[in-house]
Automatic annotation (TrEMBL):
Listed GO CC annotations: cell surface; focal adhesion; integrin complex; synapse
Protein name stated in the entry: Integrin beta
Integrin beta subunit VWA domain location: 36-371
Protein family according to the UniProt entry: Belongs to the integrin beta chain family.
InterPro entries given in the database record: Integrin_beta_N (IPR033760), Integrin_bsu (IPR015812), Integrin_bsu_VWA (IPR002369), vWFA_dom_sf (IPR036465)
């Protein structure tokens, strides 16, 4: 693309626009010297490039609206793809998370504003979980505690539940009022909730052409497969969707907890990135989980979840800047040897991923097969 002057604008027009530019101040797109479209789009997701010769009197690399105001035709404006994003927020609703609930009420507007620089095609949803509603995971005596697990506390709370889809993915994110409940044992039923949020595609509303982010928020561990035998549940999880017409998981007291391996398979199968947004005490455990779950990230949730928006943005940036080769259905008799050539030309044997990438970067993956 050649950069030429614009004979179509009068000196007066150029003078006025130059004065407006100086008055309003430069933005991140015009603050750097760029020579082509690729360099422009790498600056920031909001930057756009005008490919029309003589289309813009000031800079070919600018905000989209600024280019249009400068005379560039809309059809000549190149912008980084505005990929759709589906974000489902799955929150621990046990009593220990009651302070964090206040931040959740403003999360929709805050996240929408923060992610606007990344995409304008955003949908959000919200799910809640506590624990399997049966002993020994819940209080069953006296009878009043079943209806109100917080009956000894000043404020009542709703009965314990496993998982509930509070709000399916939507562009119209409204404030959803919900209340915490109370369970008996320390680990929570988070893995039950993750499984349902992943496999119930129609109920949740995951779009096939969108980036899928599942935000898991908790301040404690989650039960794993076989733990449910303590409650007399011996039937293993089947990996299927079991959300009823009331948007609740109706096999909570029948099926055991899913295994980490099953969750990993379902996340990969449905192309969903899991982000653990957990408190400091749970971070080491979730980091161990993350090493086994491709495309997942872990962030430390601060007190009252005040940093949750920035945590999600940071985790999403890491996911977008990482390329990872995942191998599915490889026969046992077949051995694969993989080498990755990074941006600096270094060849790393046995590594299937590369991080810190930007638009236009190229990573080479070479593999050999041996029977």
């Amino acid at each position: 693309v050649r950069i030429t002057s614009s004979p179509r604008f009068t000196k007066w027009s150029m003078y006025v626009k130059l004065m407006m530019f100086l008055f309003l101040g430069s933005n991140i797109c015009t603050s750097r010297e760029v020579r082509n479209c690729k360099e422009c789009l790498l600056i920031h997701p909001t930057c756009a490039w005008c490919s029309q010769e003589g289309g813009s009197s000031l800079s070919r690399c600018d905000l989209r609206d600024s280019l249009i105001q400068s005379g560039c035709g809309v059809k000549f404006i190149d912008k980084a793809a505005d990929y759709p994003v589906d974000l489902y927020y799955l929150m621990d609703m046990t009593n220990t998370m009651k302070d964090d609930l206040q931040k959740l009420y403003t999360l929709g507007n805050d996240l929408t504003s923060a992610l606007r620089v990344v995409t304008s095609n955003l949908r959000m949803g919200f799910g809640a979980f506590v624990e399997k509603p049966l002993s020994p995971y819940m209080y069953i005596y006296p009878e009043e505690v079943i209806r109100n697990p917080c009956y000894k506390f000043p404020k009542p709370c709703p009965p314990q539940f496993g998982y509930r889809n509070v709000l399916s993915l939507t562009e119209q994110v409204e404030r959803e009022e919900t209340k915490v409940s109370r369970n008996r044992d320390t680990p929570e039923g988070g893995f039950d909730a993750i499984m349902q949020a992943v496999v119930c595609k129609d109920k949740i509303g995951w779009r096939p052409d969108a980036s899928h982010l599942l935000i898991f928020t908790s301040d404690d561990r989650s039960h794993l497969a076989l733990n449910a035998r303590l409650a007399g549940i011996v039937q293993p999880h089947d990996g299927e969707c079991h959300i009823n017409n009331n948007n609740e998981y109706d096999k909570s007291t029948i099926l055991g907890y899913p295994s980490l391996g099953m969750i990993t398979d379902k996340l990969s199968e449905n192309n969903i990135n899991l982000i653990f947004a957990v408190t400091k005490a749970v971070v080491p455990l979730c980091r161990n989980y993350s090493e086994l779950i491709p495309g997942s990230e872990v962030g430390t949730l601060s007190r009252d979840s005040v940093n949750v928006v920035q945590l999600i943005l940071d985790a999403y940036a890491k996911i977008r800047s990482k390329v990872e080769l995942e191998l599915l259905g490889v026969p046992d008799e077949l051995s694969l040897f993989i080498n990755t050539t990074c941006l600096d030309g270094e060849v790393i044997a046995g590594v299937r991923s590369s991080a810190g990438l930007k638009i236009g970067d190229m990573v080479r993956l070479k593999w050999e097969c041996k029977c």
